[in-house]
């Protein structure tokens, strides 16, 4: 009789293991990619369980206490163990990402405070005077609710968003990363760079400080509607 508990799928990891010492050396973008990989594998493993008609809590034994013969018990057990491992990896990654984001925005604040001519949230800069390379806009502010966090930051309808924290044109993923940035930085400063039309072909480049928060009196944590370009 074959060994009932012998794994029928590889028990080793199919994604790189999460070692905190190594992960803390990665960039935020690399951490995001690693998180996406973990989530992708979790989804695939969930499909394995679905193919057997079971989940993480379904009993694998008959009422008499014997292993069920209608499913691959060994594969399900191995898959469940891998899912538990990956869930722990995902939790560790999210903790590291949140910490890195807080450090990132704190460093931006320090840089602003040390600048000889600091730029406040309501200060506009003519485009020609901006020394840095501007990222292309990837989203547009469609509406802003009065007395909302977005309104307090100075966002206005029609503003073109170039950067939303660490999110830009290259990595916004259809604005999904904007939502992740907001969820991971409740009560924290997020630097938002926008371009605002000032009439004709002229525009202003603004650096706004947005603080997502709940219980401001409206829906969501921003109080604005953003559309992808």
Automatic annotation (TrEMBL):
- Cited Pfam families: Nas2_N, PDZ_6
Q: Where is the composition biased (Polar residues)?
A: 115-126
User: Which parts of the sequence belong to the Nas2 N-terminal domain?
Assistant: 29-106
Start and end of every PDZ domain?
Answer: 141-196
Recorded source organism is Parachaetomium inaequale
InterPro entries recorded: Nas2_N (IPR040815), PDZ_6 (IPR041489), PDZ_sf (IPR036034), PSMD9 (IPR035269)
Q: Which residues form a coiled coil?
A: none
| Keyword Translocase among UniProt keywords | no
Arranged from A to Z, the UniProt key words for this protein are: Chaperone
Has UniProt tagged this entry with the keyword Signal? no
One Gene Ontology BP term is: proteasome regulatory particle assembly
Start and end residues of each stretch annotated as Disordered: 108-130
What's the name of the protein?
A: Probable 26S proteasome regulatory subunit p27
Family membership noted in the UniProt record: Belongs to the proteasome subunit p27 family.
Gene Ontology CC terms: cytoplasm; nucleus
Lineage, top-rank taxon, reads: Eukaryota
């Amino acid at each position: 009789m074959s060994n009932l508990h012998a794994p029928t799928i590889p028990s080793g990891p199919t994604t790189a293991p999460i070692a905190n010492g190594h992960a803390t050396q990665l960039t935020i973008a690399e951490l995001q990619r690693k998180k996406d990989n973990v989530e992708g594998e979790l989804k695939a493993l969930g499909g394995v369980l679905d193919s057997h008609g079971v989940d993480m809590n379904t009993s694998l034994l008959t009422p008499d206490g014997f292993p069920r013969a209608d499913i691959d018990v060994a594969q399900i057990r191995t898959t469940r163990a891998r899912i538990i491992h990956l869930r722990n990896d995902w939790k560790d990654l999210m903790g590291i990402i949140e910490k890195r984001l807080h450090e990132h925005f704190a460093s931006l604040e320090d840089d602003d405070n040390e600048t000889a001519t600091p730029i406040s949230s309501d200060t506009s800069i003519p485009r020609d005077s901006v020394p840095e390379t501007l990222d292309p806009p990837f989203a547009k502010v469609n509406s802003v609710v009065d007395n909302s966090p977005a309104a307090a930051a100075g966002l206005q309808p029609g503003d073109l968003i170039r950067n939303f924290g660490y999110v830009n044109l290259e990595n916004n993923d259809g604005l999904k990363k904007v939502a992740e940035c907001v969820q991971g930085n409740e009560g924290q400063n997020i630097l938002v760079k926008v371009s605002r039309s000032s009439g004709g072909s002229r525009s202003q480049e603004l650096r706004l400080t947005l603080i997502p928060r709940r219980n401001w009196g409206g829906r969501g944590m921003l109080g604005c509607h953003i559309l992808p370009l």
